[in-house]
Amino acid sequence: MLGNIIKRFSIVEKTFSSQNEHLTVGIANINSEVGNLQANQTSIVSTLDQFLAKKVNIAIFPEFCLSGYFYEPERECQTFMENVTLEKLASWLSDLTTRYINDTLQMIVLNGLEKSSIEDGRFFNTTLLVDKDGCSLIPEKTYKKNFLPGGETSFCHSGINDTLVMETAWGRFGVLTCYDICFAPLITDLVYRHLIDGLIVTAAWRKQGERTYSELGIINSAYHQTQWEIILPALAAQNQIWIMAANSVGRHSVKCLNYCGRSGIWAPSGINMILGSDSEDQLLILHNITIQEALSNEREPFGVLKDYSQLSSYGKK
User: Which of 86, 87, 9 lies closest to 44 in space, CA to CA?
Assistant: First the structure.
Protein backbone atom coordinates (compact mmCIF):
# COMPACT_ATOMS: atom_id res chain seq x y z
CA MET A 1 0.00 0.00 0.00
CA LEU A 2 1.20 3.49 -0.81
CA GLY A 3 -0.07 5.14 2.36
CA ASN A 4 -1.58 8.55 2.86
CA ILE A 5 1.10 10.39 4.83
CA ILE A 6 1.59 13.83 3.30
CA LYS A 7 5.00 15.50 3.11
CA ARG A 8 4.96 18.83 1.32
CA PHE A 9 8.02 20.12 -0.49
CA SER A 10 8.53 23.66 -1.73
CA ILE A 11 8.11 24.00 -5.49
CA VAL A 12 10.19 25.95 -7.99
CA GLU A 13 7.98 26.26 -11.07
CA LYS A 14 8.69 27.86 -14.44
CA THR A 15 7.10 27.86 -17.89
CA PHE A 16 9.32 27.39 -20.94
CA SER A 17 6.70 28.24 -23.56
CA SER A 18 2.99 29.02 -23.94
CA GLN A 19 2.43 25.83 -25.96
CA ASN A 20 0.56 23.59 -23.52
CA GLU A 21 0.90 20.43 -25.61
CA HIS A 22 4.64 20.21 -24.99
CA LEU A 23 6.61 18.34 -22.34
CA THR A 24 6.40 19.19 -18.64
CA VAL A 25 9.17 17.70 -16.47
CA GLY A 26 9.22 17.34 -12.69
CA ILE A 27 12.54 16.79 -10.90
CA ALA A 28 12.87 15.83 -7.24
CA ASN A 29 15.78 17.67 -5.59
CA ILE A 30 15.29 15.73 -2.34
CA ASN A 31 17.13 13.76 0.34
CA SER A 32 16.80 10.03 0.93
CA GLU A 33 17.18 8.72 4.46
CA VAL A 34 19.63 5.84 4.80
CA GLY A 35 18.03 2.73 6.25
CA ASN A 36 14.54 4.23 6.28
CA LEU A 37 12.46 2.79 3.45
CA GLN A 38 9.15 4.08 4.81
CA ALA A 39 10.37 7.68 4.96
CA ASN A 40 11.72 7.46 1.41
CA GLN A 41 8.51 5.93 0.08
CA THR A 42 6.55 8.72 1.78
CA SER A 43 8.74 11.32 0.08
CA ILE A 44 8.25 9.69 -3.32
CA VAL A 45 4.47 9.41 -2.94
CA SER A 46 4.14 12.99 -1.70
CA THR A 47 6.30 14.21 -4.57
CA LEU A 48 4.18 12.35 -7.10
CA ASP A 49 0.99 13.79 -5.56
CA GLN A 50 2.37 17.28 -6.15
CA PHE A 51 3.64 16.45 -9.63
CA LEU A 52 0.28 14.95 -10.55
CA ALA A 53 -1.52 18.12 -9.46
CA LYS A 54 0.88 20.19 -11.59
CA LYS A 55 0.32 18.04 -14.69
CA VAL A 56 3.88 16.77 -14.97
CA ASN A 57 4.55 14.33 -17.85
CA ILE A 58 7.89 12.84 -16.73
CA ALA A 59 8.92 12.64 -13.05
CA ILE A 60 12.60 12.10 -12.25
CA PHE A 61 14.02 11.05 -8.85
CA PRO A 62 17.63 10.92 -7.56
CA GLU A 63 19.88 7.90 -7.31
CA PHE A 64 19.08 5.59 -4.36
CA CYS A 65 15.81 7.45 -3.78
CA LEU A 66 14.33 4.32 -2.16
CA SER A 67 17.18 2.95 -0.07
CA GLY A 68 19.43 5.91 0.60
CA TYR A 69 23.17 5.61 -0.02
CA PHE A 70 25.33 2.82 1.40
CA TYR A 71 26.63 3.17 4.94
CA GLU A 72 28.58 1.48 7.72
CA PRO A 73 28.55 -0.93 9.43
CA GLU A 74 28.61 -2.84 6.17
CA ARG A 75 26.80 -5.93 7.49
CA GLU A 76 23.88 -3.87 8.79
CA CYS A 77 23.71 -2.00 5.50
CA GLN A 78 23.80 -5.23 3.50
CA THR A 79 20.86 -6.64 5.46
CA PHE A 80 18.79 -3.51 4.93
CA MET A 81 19.60 -3.31 1.24
CA GLU A 82 18.63 -6.96 0.75
CA ASN A 83 15.14 -6.08 2.00
CA VAL A 84 14.57 -3.05 -0.25
CA THR A 85 15.54 -4.38 -3.66
CA LEU A 86 13.33 -3.47 -6.59
CA GLU A 87 12.21 -7.10 -6.75
CA LYS A 88 10.94 -7.01 -3.17
CA LEU A 89 9.20 -3.68 -3.80
CA ALA A 90 7.38 -4.98 -6.88
CA SER A 91 3.92 -4.71 -5.32
CA TRP A 92 4.52 -1.16 -4.10
CA LEU A 93 5.88 -0.15 -7.50
CA SER A 94 2.85 -1.70 -9.17
CA ASP A 95 0.63 0.44 -6.94
CA LEU A 96 2.54 3.52 -8.17
CA THR A 97 1.60 2.60 -11.73
CA THR A 98 -2.08 2.24 -10.83
CA ARG A 99 -2.27 5.42 -8.79
CA TYR A 100 -0.17 7.83 -10.87
CA ILE A 101 0.42 6.76 -14.46
CA ASN A 102 -2.13 8.21 -16.85
CA ASP A 103 -2.32 10.14 -20.13
CA THR A 104 -0.62 13.12 -18.47
CA LEU A 105 1.96 11.62 -16.08
CA GLN A 106 3.36 9.09 -18.50
CA MET A 107 6.68 8.12 -16.92
CA ILE A 108 8.34 7.94 -13.50
CA VAL A 109 12.13 7.51 -13.37
CA LEU A 110 13.25 5.82 -10.13
CA ASN A 111 16.56 4.37 -8.98
CA GLY A 112 17.16 1.44 -6.68
CA LEU A 113 18.92 -1.86 -6.18
CA GLU A 114 18.36 -4.95 -8.30
CA LYS A 115 19.58 -8.29 -6.99
CA SER A 116 22.46 -9.70 -9.00
CA SER A 117 22.19 -13.25 -10.31
CA ILE A 118 25.80 -13.76 -9.21
CA GLU A 119 25.72 -15.32 -5.74
CA ASP A 120 28.03 -12.93 -3.93
CA GLY A 121 25.52 -10.69 -2.17
CA ARG A 122 26.02 -7.74 -4.46
CA PHE A 123 23.47 -5.74 -6.45
CA PHE A 124 23.08 -3.71 -9.60
CA ASN A 125 22.49 0.00 -9.23
CA THR A 126 19.41 0.14 -11.47
CA THR A 127 17.35 2.99 -12.85
CA LEU A 128 13.81 1.86 -13.58
CA LEU A 129 11.20 3.38 -15.90
CA VAL A 130 7.66 3.08 -14.58
CA ASP A 131 5.09 3.69 -17.33
CA LYS A 132 1.75 2.45 -18.64
CA ASP A 133 3.23 -1.01 -19.12
CA GLY A 134 4.09 -1.25 -15.42
CA CYS A 135 7.45 -1.63 -13.70
CA SER A 136 9.00 -4.79 -15.08
CA LEU A 137 12.76 -5.28 -14.60
CA ILE A 138 13.37 -5.95 -18.28
CA PRO A 139 16.27 -4.52 -20.33
CA GLU A 140 13.93 -2.21 -22.25
CA LYS A 141 12.89 -0.49 -18.98
CA THR A 142 16.08 -0.52 -16.90
CA TYR A 143 19.58 0.90 -16.90
CA LYS A 144 22.37 -0.63 -14.80
CA LYS A 145 24.98 1.91 -13.77
CA ASN A 146 28.19 1.36 -15.74
CA PHE A 147 30.84 3.05 -13.62
CA LEU A 148 31.02 2.67 -9.84
CA PRO A 149 33.05 4.90 -7.49
CA GLY A 150 35.13 3.07 -4.90
CA GLY A 151 32.57 2.83 -2.10
CA GLU A 152 29.95 1.23 -4.34
CA THR A 153 32.13 -1.60 -5.59
CA SER A 154 31.75 -3.45 -2.27
CA PHE A 155 28.00 -3.60 -2.79
CA CYS A 156 27.40 -3.46 -6.54
CA HIS A 157 28.37 -5.02 -9.83
CA SER A 158 28.90 -2.80 -12.85
CA GLY A 159 26.34 -2.96 -15.61
CA ILE A 160 29.19 -2.31 -18.02
CA ASN A 161 28.05 -1.72 -21.60
CA ASP A 162 24.42 -1.41 -20.55
CA THR A 163 22.45 1.21 -22.45
CA LEU A 164 18.91 2.53 -22.17
CA VAL A 165 17.26 4.79 -24.72
CA MET A 166 13.57 5.52 -24.36
CA GLU A 167 11.22 6.69 -27.06
CA THR A 168 8.63 9.25 -25.98
CA ALA A 169 6.10 11.50 -27.65
CA TRP A 170 8.57 14.37 -27.17
CA GLY A 171 11.84 12.77 -28.27
CA ARG A 172 14.50 10.16 -27.54
CA PHE A 173 16.10 10.21 -24.10
CA GLY A 174 19.12 8.33 -22.81
CA VAL A 175 19.72 7.51 -19.14
CA LEU A 176 22.94 7.66 -17.10
CA THR A 177 23.61 7.46 -13.37
CA CYS A 178 25.82 9.83 -11.35
CA TYR A 179 29.53 8.98 -11.93
CA ASP A 180 28.67 7.78 -15.46
CA ILE A 181 28.55 11.39 -16.69
CA CYS A 182 32.34 11.62 -16.23
CA PHE A 183 32.92 9.14 -19.06
CA ALA A 184 32.80 10.70 -22.51
CA PRO A 185 32.39 7.43 -24.46
CA LEU A 186 29.02 6.79 -22.80
CA ILE A 187 27.69 10.19 -23.85
CA THR A 188 29.28 9.91 -27.31
CA ASP A 189 27.55 6.59 -27.89
CA LEU A 190 24.16 7.93 -26.80
CA VAL A 191 24.42 11.13 -28.81
CA TYR A 192 26.07 10.03 -32.03
CA ARG A 193 25.02 6.41 -32.33
CA HIS A 194 21.62 6.37 -30.63
CA LEU A 195 20.77 9.96 -31.67
CA ILE A 196 19.23 11.03 -28.36
CA ASP A 197 17.58 14.42 -27.93
CA GLY A 198 18.14 14.54 -24.19
CA LEU A 199 19.87 12.84 -21.30
CA ILE A 200 18.21 11.94 -17.99
CA VAL A 201 20.62 11.74 -15.05
CA THR A 202 19.92 10.28 -11.62
CA ALA A 203 22.56 11.04 -9.01
CA ALA A 204 23.65 11.08 -5.37
CA TRP A 205 26.51 13.52 -5.99
CA ARG A 206 28.23 14.84 -2.89
CA LYS A 207 29.33 18.39 -2.15
CA GLN A 208 32.57 17.99 -0.17
CA GLY A 209 36.04 17.57 -1.63
CA GLU A 210 38.89 20.03 -1.23
CA ARG A 211 41.25 21.42 -3.85
CA THR A 212 43.93 23.92 -2.83
CA TYR A 213 46.24 26.01 -5.00
CA SER A 214 48.24 27.76 -2.31
CA GLU A 215 50.33 30.05 -4.47
CA LEU A 216 47.17 31.58 -5.88
CA GLY A 217 45.32 31.60 -2.59
CA ILE A 218 42.63 29.34 -3.99
CA ILE A 219 40.82 26.95 -1.66
CA ASN A 220 37.73 25.14 -2.89
CA SER A 221 36.15 23.09 -0.10
CA ALA A 222 33.13 22.03 -2.19
CA TYR A 223 35.04 20.71 -5.18
CA HIS A 224 32.62 17.94 -6.09
CA GLN A 225 29.80 20.45 -6.28
CA THR A 226 32.01 22.51 -8.58
CA GLN A 227 32.42 19.43 -10.79
CA TRP A 228 28.66 18.91 -10.94
CA GLU A 229 28.04 22.54 -11.87
CA ILE A 230 30.66 22.40 -14.64
CA ILE A 231 29.99 19.00 -16.18
CA LEU A 232 26.23 19.18 -16.79
CA PRO A 233 26.06 22.45 -18.77
CA ALA A 234 29.21 21.40 -20.65
CA LEU A 235 27.62 18.10 -21.68
CA ALA A 236 24.49 19.91 -22.85
CA ALA A 237 26.37 22.52 -24.89
CA GLN A 238 29.10 20.30 -26.29
CA ASN A 239 26.65 17.66 -27.49
CA GLN A 240 23.68 19.96 -28.17
CA ILE A 241 21.25 17.91 -26.11
CA TRP A 242 18.87 18.52 -23.22
CA ILE A 243 20.11 17.51 -19.78
CA MET A 244 17.56 16.69 -17.06
CA ALA A 245 19.27 15.79 -13.79
CA ALA A 246 17.88 14.79 -10.39
CA ASN A 247 20.39 14.85 -7.53
CA SER A 248 20.13 14.18 -3.82
CA VAL A 249 20.37 17.14 -1.45
CA GLY A 250 21.07 17.50 2.25
CA ARG A 251 22.97 15.41 4.75
CA HIS A 252 23.80 11.73 4.70
CA SER A 253 22.93 10.84 8.27
CA VAL A 254 25.70 8.29 8.74
CA LYS A 255 28.63 9.36 6.57
CA CYS A 256 28.56 13.01 7.68
CA LEU A 257 28.71 14.33 4.14
CA ASN A 258 26.34 16.54 2.20
CA TYR A 259 24.89 16.03 -1.24
CA CYS A 260 25.12 19.08 -3.46
CA GLY A 261 21.59 19.12 -4.90
CA ARG A 262 21.57 21.56 -7.81
CA SER A 263 19.20 19.35 -9.78
CA GLY A 264 18.03 21.05 -12.91
CA ILE A 265 17.40 21.24 -16.63
CA TRP A 266 19.90 22.55 -19.17
CA ALA A 267 18.96 23.44 -22.74
CA PRO A 268 21.05 22.27 -25.75
CA SER A 269 22.82 25.64 -25.54
CA GLY A 270 24.19 24.65 -22.11
CA ILE A 271 22.16 27.42 -20.47
CA ASN A 272 20.30 26.46 -17.31
CA MET A 273 16.49 26.67 -17.42
CA ILE A 274 15.68 25.75 -13.80
CA LEU A 275 18.01 24.97 -10.88
CA GLY A 276 17.51 23.44 -7.44
CA SER A 277 18.93 24.40 -4.07
CA ASP A 278 22.26 23.01 -2.85
CA SER A 279 20.87 22.56 0.68
CA GLU A 280 17.06 22.29 0.71
CA ASP A 281 14.52 19.75 -0.53
CA GLN A 282 12.65 21.17 -3.51
CA LEU A 283 10.54 20.05 -6.42
CA LEU A 284 11.44 21.58 -9.79
CA ILE A 285 8.82 21.82 -12.52
CA LEU A 286 9.43 23.17 -16.01
CA HIS A 287 6.30 23.39 -18.14
CA ASN A 288 5.83 23.22 -21.90
CA ILE A 289 9.38 22.44 -23.03
CA THR A 290 9.63 22.63 -26.82
CA ILE A 291 12.26 19.91 -27.05
CA GLN A 292 12.60 19.71 -30.83
CA GLU A 293 12.39 23.45 -31.49
CA ALA A 294 15.21 24.20 -29.06
CA LEU A 295 17.32 21.43 -30.59
CA SER A 296 16.83 22.87 -34.06
CA ASN A 297 17.72 26.35 -32.86
CA GLU A 298 21.13 25.06 -31.78
CA ARG A 299 21.82 22.43 -34.42
CA GLU A 300 20.86 24.31 -37.58
CA PRO A 301 23.44 27.12 -37.38
CA PHE A 302 26.09 25.05 -35.59
CA GLY A 303 25.47 21.37 -36.21
CA VAL A 304 27.79 19.30 -34.03
CA LEU A 305 25.82 16.11 -34.74
CA LYS A 306 25.94 16.65 -38.50
CA ASP A 307 29.60 17.65 -38.59
CA TYR A 308 30.71 14.78 -36.35
CA SER A 309 28.98 12.23 -38.55
CA GLN A 310 31.33 13.20 -41.40
CA LEU A 311 34.32 12.04 -39.36
CA SER A 312 33.14 8.73 -37.97
CA SER A 313 30.60 5.95 -38.20
CA TYR A 314 28.57 7.52 -35.37
CA GLY A 315 25.26 8.99 -36.40
CA LYS A 316 24.77 6.42 -39.16
CA LYS A 317 21.84 4.14 -38.50
Answer: 9
